[in-house]
Amino acid sequence: MDVLITGLLLGGTYALIAMGLNLQYGMARIMNLANGEMLVTGGFVAFWFWTGSQISPLLTVFLVAPAAFALNWLIYVIFLGPLVKRARSRGQLEVDAILTTFGLSFVAVGLMLAFFGGDYFSYSYLSTPIHIFGDTYGANRVAAFLSAVLICGALWLWLARSRAGMTIRAISVAPDSARLVGIDVRRTAALAFALGGAVTATGGALISTFLTLDASTGVIFTLKALVIVIMGGVGDVRGTIVAALLLGLLETFVARMIDPGLTLAAAYLLFVVILLFRPQGLFGRPTT
Amino acid sequence: MKRRTFTRLAALVLAASVAGAPALAQEVLKIGAVAPKTGPLAGGAAVSYWPNVKLWINDVNARGGLKVGATTYKLEAIEYDDQTNPGETIKAVQRLVDQDKVKVVLPPYSTGLNLAAAPIYARYGLPMITSTATTDKANELSKQFPNVFITLGGAKPTVASVVETMVKLKERGDIGNKLAMVNVADAFGIELMGEAKPAFKEAGFELVYETSYPLGTQDLSPVMKAAKAATPDAFIAWSYPPDTFALTEQAIVEDLKVGAFFTAVATAFPAYAGRFGAGAEGVLGIGGVHADGDAFKEYAARHEQVTGAKPDYWASAMVYSSFQILEKSIEAVGSFDNAAIIKHVKENSFDTVIGPIKFDENNNNAAFWTVGQWQDGVFKGVASTGRDGAVEVKKKGAWQ
Q: Which helix (H) or strand (E) holds A41?
């Protein structure tokens, strides 16, 4: 039982890490390699507010999310918009975006070093035990999991039911045809990208309550997010959630039942197996 | 037209000489420093290494400058980021010597990067008084590279000290003989685990739980749950900074009841007490200093004043001490003759912020701190291989 719950909690963490990238890559078609840096920035802001004036990270989130949304909107308009405009094919856009955001990730690391310094930022928030079915779990992990459920649920509902969500799905499925039905593709893509950034930064603020971050840890999260997004299927919210939970459960199961040293091996084995049998990801659409 | 050009030129020369005059009065000596500012080890270097470069240069300049023969130099740092990549460390050292014409290069940061850079320092004949490298192979190293000095000790004496501390707690009846021990699957963790397992068995401990976890593991709750299920009397982790924090947090969450709780790197960081507050009380960790000594107190106060951050209670003071040794040797030799400087380092004893340092025939400083413990908000040295000022180790109480 405790393996199941620990695994679900870890899966929730992974969902928080990966959901933003899914929006950016799947919907806005920008393979954002600076995604992890956005997460670390969110974590730093939470750290700063908590150590500076004891403002709970659960409240900081409401400040982080709009700020990150605005920042990512600007990044999209200034750096990525021109790429989208001149790209002739999806492949070319992908290559250009990878190169640009790879560069941006270095800029972000440099800026963070200049502003925050290279020190670890770690603090204790809600590191109190919670008892569920007779076992103890960290309250901060449970809080992050609940937030993940809330964020992912809201996103899924919004994308599936609302008109704005539908336009985003439209540009994800068929960007060329979307224009024919009167959708402003570039504006909608900017919206999806900015939303992805906001979700990522929010996730960063939440997981900083139990993970130790520093200015250069971003790349670790980018890689993890990438693996999860590809496993789940690019551009599908359900896929990302399922893949994140699957990964969390598997890693915890291996750590408890076999050996903690094998968690990474098991995670990548799962990745390879999924790619072998469903190259488009669990929920992905087969490419034509 | 010609005359006007001449007057202009003359004015320019005059202006330049007036502006240049104060600079001529004191020469500037560039000091090269290479260490991670990005990459996996950047967090540690930002605590233990970079502030000391700033502090040392500030201190030397504050007392007038570095006196080499008849000239007194103002020091100025050239800092390069090696991205925690050994190849970059080597390139940066080459660049410092060949391109920037730097005469003094400080040692790099961490065991791996120091060992990787040892050959290039040796090729340039630079003295390399390492301060953040731990190795048991000082004798082999000094044979191959006589310019390399080791100050922070090795795995064997560190493990021996940890075992000794645990035996002391056991003999006092504070802990039983059931031990849970975990390590990060990385050169550091594997080496120390390899040393520690037989040493603890020999000392009569029973290993009730052992495991390793990959570097960068996000979630250590399975490890802590399993450790707790084995009901150990003492918990030891050969861990790196992020996992040191994560293991401690999980131990608090799980309420792991042990009489001794030991985590390795980063336990001595100010951020550890900053994060866990009273929860850090009684936690044992690798390192330590003579925290109540005047030399350290005075150093810590200056460190905070100049750099705005507190030093850690392990490597920080050693990093500064190694710079002091270099500084004193250059002044004593009175020139930048590296061979003479290395000879001077070998032959003399140095008074530093960590206490007196004298290298043995293997260029190894045999006296270093091995185990410390958080007591009343300060990480105090409880065991060393011949340093003064150790305090009595206490039993770990309940988590607060």
A: helix A35-53
